[in-house]
Amino acid sequence: MDNPDGGDDATHKAALRAEALASRDALGAADRAAAAVSIAARAGKILEALRPAAVALYLPIGSECPTAPLMATAVSLGAAVGLPAVVDQATLVFRRYRRGDRLVPGGFGTRAPEAVAPLVQPDVVVVPVVAFDRRGARLGYGRGHYDRAITALREAGQTPLLLGIAFSVQEVGPIPAEPHDVHLDWVVTEKETLKFRG
């Protein structure tokens, strides 16, 4: 499917991804820190309402929104925390993480629990977001790890709710949808909570 401005979807997605990353990277440290506090408070309310048994989070890289406050909320609610671990080029799983556990290089600049850590079947997946739109569509870094991981969970009978956290400057115009793309149930920014389903 072509996008309305011409060109194919992959090219259009790449342009939207670059735009959102540039906007996120341009945020000053003080603005990013203040926004992160608001995002954590908003997203924390969702976790408090849901009381999930397990939450998949991620450790931020680059200019991504910090997740430590949200992890603290999950732990305070008694939820098990899982972090993403790339098993191979096509497979991402969530491994149990407790504060103080050893982390190893997880690929693409990330850190992950060791392979001996048990797998977590999350009720809520906090999904990294490069860009999002008003329909709940999301762009990641273009490797498809989360789309495949979430599809695998659903095929195994799991139905985790998907929560994207992002700075408001990461909102873009409509993101072209492809059959394998997973849409979010919520997007939380420092300015608003957008609920799409769930």
Q: What does this protein structure show overall?
A:
- Helix 2 (29-50) runs parallel beside helix 3.
- The chain has a single domain, classed as NagB/RpiA/CoA transferase-like (Rossmann fold, 3-Layer(aba) Sandwich), CATH 3.40.50.
- It has 198 residues and is α/β, with parallel strands linked by helices.
- The protein starts with 8 loop residues before the first helix and ends with a strand.
- A seven-stranded mixed beta sheet has the order 3-2-1-6-9-10-11, with helices on both faces. A two-stranded antiparallel ribbon has the order 4-5. Strands 7-8 form a two-stranded antiparallel ribbon.
- It is 30% helix and 23% strand.
- The protein is built from four helices and eleven strands, in the order ααβαβββββββαβββ.
Q: Keywords for this structure?
A:
11 strands, 198 residues, alpha/beta, Rossmann fold, two-stranded antiparallel ribbon, globular
Sequence-ordered SSE layout with sheet pairings:
Elements: H1 9-25, H2 29-50, E1 54-56, H3 68-76, E2 80-88, E3 91-96, E4 103-107, E5 110-113, E6 124-127, E7 131-132, E8 138-139, H4 145-155, E9 161-165, E10 186-188, E11 193-195
Parallel strand pairs: 1-2, 1-6, 6-9, 9-10
Antiparallel strand pairs: 2-3, 4-5, 7-8, 10-11
Q: How many β strands by DSSP?
A: 11
Major β-sheet annotation: 7 strands, mixed
CATH class: Alpha Beta
Coarse morphology: globular
Helix content: 25-40%
Rounded Rg: 16 Å
